[in-house]
Write a sequence for this structure.
């Protein structure tokens, strides 16, 4: 294995593109080093992206925020303006691992690890976040929802790395929330999860809604049919019940010791309902 | 494998070492530098026994490559006492018998110190969440929580 601390995104992309063997991108390392130790992967080249300018920065941009690919969970949690604008995204990131893992883990790494249960991903999908990708052919932008393609798999091409994730501006009466179910209080992986992002009008009626579910399909999934049911309502109980049903209808979870298909499906709907209420209250709505 | 030359600062002292590209910071500390305070429990970032700080940030040294230490400031349990004068956390762990086998203790001390630097007066709940990534299979945690709170009170001058 060779270790390269790249100093530009172009250098990282070129090195990853030129390597014929297995490669890994190293940001926080909380997944990559576990893979190395387990012996499941034996990469020829590991490219550390933390020395590339901008990778460790959160910058205000067009009313939103651009978060470098190597910004840690702890750094995201300490950024008050970002947490105020996108509380659902930041609370999801901060649920990853322990204090020690938070010191290293990154939102982009959670996305690229491509676990259907990644805690950072549903809120990013609900937020319509956009990944900026650097590759051998230059830069391109891609909606976060299109990055994961299956468990452990992404749509990134050889030599491509995500350099940052952009969270857009949002109007005053807008907010988001993320909830997951785990059988304990800390240090666990979601059995099912849900993120909801809402924009309200001045009267407290939902103008736009996005819902994403985690751990109930091969990738995190946006549930547009469920979100559409919320638009034009003030989240009355009947609407929420229909929304939860619409969420359940698209769940195709695995069945394992951590949760049966029926349990994960019902939980996803319940979490979506509860997350919608939290996002609604955060956005200043009252039912 | 070609070894990598790394210059770093550990507990305020300049250090240089050679390490393999896939060697963890924990293995470098223990096997190359003789700093055996950080322990390997799980090796996968779950147990916290290898906790150190890198540039002031609490991390598991088993999840950091030695090569990543280039130019960094690392603090380990070995730098916690001032000569023969134990840190208040260390003293209260002894006084309160907050350890049995002791394997988790260096990691818990390093983690607790990092919390008290950020929050000198944590609630028990904040402390338990902060230490959720430090596993102890002996004590049942209560004595650990009490010892950290006693040290925190002393450090606040209460």
């Amino acid at each position: 294995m060779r270790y390269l601390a790249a100093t530009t995104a172009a250098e990282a992309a070129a090195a990853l593109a030129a390597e014929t063997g297995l490669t890994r991108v190293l940001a926080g390392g909380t997944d990559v080093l576990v893979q190395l130790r387990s012996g499941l992967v034996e990469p020829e080249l590991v490219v550390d992206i933390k020395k590339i300018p901008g990778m460790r920065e959160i910058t205000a941009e067009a009313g939103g925020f651009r978060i470098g690919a190597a910004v840690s969970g702890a750094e995201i949690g300490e950024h008050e303006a970002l947490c105020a604008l996108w509380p659902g995204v930041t609370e999801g990131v901060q649920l990853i691992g322990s204090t020690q893992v938070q010191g290293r883990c990154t939102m982009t790494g959670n996305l690229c690890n491509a676990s259907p249960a990644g805690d950072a991903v549903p809120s990013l999908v609900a937020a319509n976040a956009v990944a900026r990708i650097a590759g051998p052919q230059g830069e391109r932008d891609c909606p976060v929802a299109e990055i994961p393609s299956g468990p452990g798999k992404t749509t990134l091409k050889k030599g491509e790395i995500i350099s940052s994730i952009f969270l857009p501006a949002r109007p005053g009466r807008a907010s988001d929330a993320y909830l997951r179910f785990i059988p304990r209080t800390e240090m666990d992986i979601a059995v099912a999860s849900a993120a909801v992002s809402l924009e309200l009008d001045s009267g407290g009626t939902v103008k736009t809604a996005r819902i994403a579910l985690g751990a109930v399909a091969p990738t995190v999934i946006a549930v547009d049919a469920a979100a559409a049911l919320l638009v034009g309502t003030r989240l009355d109980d009947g609407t929420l019940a229909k929304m939860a049903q619409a969420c359940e209808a698209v769940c195709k979870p695995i069945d394992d010791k951590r949760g049966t298909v029926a349990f994960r499906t019902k939980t996803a709907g319940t979490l979506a309902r509860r997350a919608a209420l939290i996002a609604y209250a955060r956005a200043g709505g009252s039912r | 494998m070609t070894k990598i030359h790394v210059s770093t600062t550990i507990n305020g002292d300049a250090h240089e070492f050679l390490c393999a590209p896939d060697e963890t910071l924990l293995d470098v500390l223990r096997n190359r530098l003789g700093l055996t305070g950080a322990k390997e429990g799980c090796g996968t970032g779950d147990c916290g026994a290898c906790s150190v700080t890198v540039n002031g940030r609490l991390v598991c040294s088993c999840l950091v490559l030695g090569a990543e230490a280039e130019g960094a400031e690392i603090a380990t349990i070995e730098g916690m006492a001032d000569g023969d004068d134990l840190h208040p956390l260390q003293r209260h762990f002894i006084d309160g018998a907050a350890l049995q086998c002791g394997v988790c203790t260096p990691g818990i001390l390093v983690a607790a110190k990092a919390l008290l630097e950020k929050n000198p007066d944590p609630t028990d709940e904040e402390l338990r969440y902060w230490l959720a990534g430090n596993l102890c299979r002996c004590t049942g945690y209560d004595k650990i929580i009490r010892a950290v709170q006693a040290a925190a009170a002393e450090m606040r001058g209460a």
In short: Helices of chain B lie at 25-32, 88-95, 105-118, 124-130, 142-156.
